[in-house]
Specification:
Elements: H1 2-9, H2 13-28, H3 34-47, H4 50-57, H5 60-84, H6 93-101, H7 107-124, H8 128-143, H9 147-163, H10 167-184, H11 187-195
Helix pairs in contact: 2-3, 3-4, 3-5, 4-5, 5-7, 6-7, 7-8, 8-9, 9-10, 10-11
Length: 196
């Protein structure tokens, strides 16, 4: 049936591309939902519109919903995007900077998006940029005096340093995590820091 449909209604690659662009435009105008998150990147990918795929993959709602529903599919989209365009995961970090500078976003939402972006970056990067992203987050949490998120950020950066074999750096980060946890009276943060 699909072959018959394609050969009848989409006889050329240009017809095929136009159909995917029309579907993508339809989903682009829809409110954020699981269906939009599933369809929109796929439609732009099929249309070969790498610029629009990049911008969709940088949308905060899509980052949250996409990673929650299928992290590996999001990684696949980024891989395909990087193979077919000049866009890189690192380019998406301008979004993170804007979110951190925006007083409108709740702290938990920023942390969720940032954590997903750092995770994404660590899949495609040697780790130096991931470490820098944690530095950016830590600076923000210090500026807004959010000790809970600062503690988590330091712990995650410590784990990244351990994976990179930078054990002295990891130890220093876990000690700082423990100090911040004590200041915030977060027992679980102290336990995490000590266990690492």
């Amino acid at each position: 049936r699909r072959v018959l449909f394609r050969s009848t209604y989409l006889p050329t690659r240009e017809h095929h591309k136009n159909a995917y662009q029309a579907l993508a435009s339809y989903f682009q105008d829809r409110p954020s939902s699981r269906r939009r998150t599933d369809e929109l990147p796929w439609q732009w990918q099929q249309a070969g519109d790498w610029e629009r795929l990049f911008h969709v993959l940088c949308e905060p709602d899509l980052i949250e919903l996409g990673w929650d529903s299928d992290e590996y599919e999001m990684l696949r989209y980024w891989g395909v995007l990087q193979e077919n365009s000049a866009h890189r995961v690192q380019d998406a970090f301008s979004l993170l900077s804007k979110l951190l500078a925006s007083p409108d976003q709740p702290s938990t939402r920023i942390w969720g998006i940032a954590a997903r972006m750092v995770d994404l970056l660590s899949h495609f990067d040697s780790g130096a940029r991931s470490s820098g992203a944690y530095d950016l987050l830590a600076e923000h949490w210090r500026d807004v005096d959010d000790l809970g998120n600062l503690e988590a950020c330091l712990g995650n950066k410590g784990l990244l340093a351990m994976r990179q074999g930078r054990l002295d750096d990891a130890r220093a980060l876990f000690i700082e995590q423990q100090t911040v946890s004590l200041q915030a009276e977060k027992t679980e943060g102290v336990i995490r820091a000590v266990c690492c």
